[in-house]
Amino acid sequence: MIEAKTSLLDIFSDNLATVLPSPIHTFSERVSNVPNILKLTIGEPDFAIPDHIKQAAVHAIDADDSHYSVSAGTIALRKAASFFLNKRYGLNYEPETEILTTVGATEGIFTILAAILNQGDQVMIPTPAYPVYAEMARINGGKPLFVDVSQDSFILSPKRLRDVIDANDNIKAIILTNPSNPTGVTYTADELEALADVLRETNILVISDEIYAELSYDRAHVSMAKFLPEQTIVVNGVSKSHAMTGYRIGILAGPAALMTEFNKLHSFIIMTPSNPAMAAATEAFSNQQSFQDTIEMKLEYQRRRDFLVTSLSQLGFEVGTPSGAFYIFAKIPQDLIQDDISFANDLVEKQQLAIVAGSGFGPGGEGYIRISYAASMTMLEEAVKRLISYTTLVRDKQLI
């Protein structure tokens, strides 16, 4: 083992010192070696990638498509993404100037924040929210401005938005996630339009994370860009909708003048995305069969969702039916451990069942747990059995 030069331990930036590891991945990795562990922690589809998409990647490899592309991604992929955004959500973006290919949605959001933030700029984040947002803001010198919406059905209201804007004078951007990770909540067209009316009066950039857009169950997904295109950057990709998390292809879409600047930074971060991965994503975005693939996955997710909502409700968890994504965000019953981190650890210790503590998703997440149902029904049925055993054990002890 090589020991670092001691004096180098102080080499890191002040910004990095403020950054916390992801509570989701840290916990998931920590419990991985627990014997007989059943993990419902990571939001990763369990479906196989459809064959026609895999074959597109194979064809690119066989054709020796192994040379540098351009940093914005192949024009074929950008045209396919433009087609997809128009066909699915009625959005209109020029492939040449308004769409950027990123290494997953996460790199796309990082690129935006790195490009716009000066030291101390605020990034508004309605919480509970994906914890990576706050840390990406911090590492780029910004300050996360958390807005707890847990008492408002996990929806940011226009009044709340206006109040936060009036109380702060250094907000550079807002990150809206629709559908939401971790709550599964989706915004209606009316709710988005009302937020757009408030934001239109400001110079706040809207980063609209719509990576779960295809997994909207109760109604067709509506993008924030329908109401505020001049001020919104749409974040999307193939990871969740097409079960392609390992391919690492995301897209950003927005006004050309902004995308040019984002691409300038993006090109220094990644140079170019992977050609075979882009070929597969091109197929995913453009082939009609892909839409059917996603529908079939979505129907199975709904079946799993309904099973978990019913099962958890019967066990006393307070849980609404999520209208998008593939997570259950459930409030822990009053007769069980109320500290969500202690609850999650106790569940691992007593039943070898791993879920994610809600407090890791920021203010409003305390006392909740997040369960990913991007897992087989067999796994979910076993998870419920273990939850039943756990709650029975705890409650019987309380009665003694």
Automatic annotation (TrEMBL):
Keywords associated with the record: Aminotransferase, Pyridoxal phosphate, Transferase
Lineage: Bacteria, Bacillati, Bacillota, Bacilli, Lactobacillales
Highest rank taxon of the organism: Bacteria
Protein name: Aminotransferase
Natural source organism: Leuconostoc carnosum (strain JB16)
EC number in record: 2.6.1.-
InterPro entries linked to this entry: Aminotransferase_I/II_large (IPR004839), AspAT/PAT-like (IPR050596), NHTrfase_class1_PyrdxlP-BS (IPR004838), PyrdxlP-dep_Trfase (IPR015424), PyrdxlP-dep_Trfase_major (IPR015421), PyrdxlP-dep_Trfase_small (IPR015422)
Example GO biological process: amino acid metabolic process
A Pfam family per the record: Aminotran_1_2
GO molecular function terms noted in the UniProt entry: pyridoxal phosphate binding; transaminase activity
Keyword presence, Transferase: yes
Amino-acid biosynthesis keyword on record: no
CDD domains named among the record's database cross-references: AAT_like
Aminotransferase class I/classII large domain ranges (all copies): 36-387
The protein's enzyme class: transferase
Record family assignment: Belongs to the class-I pyridoxal-phosphate-dependent aminotransferase family.
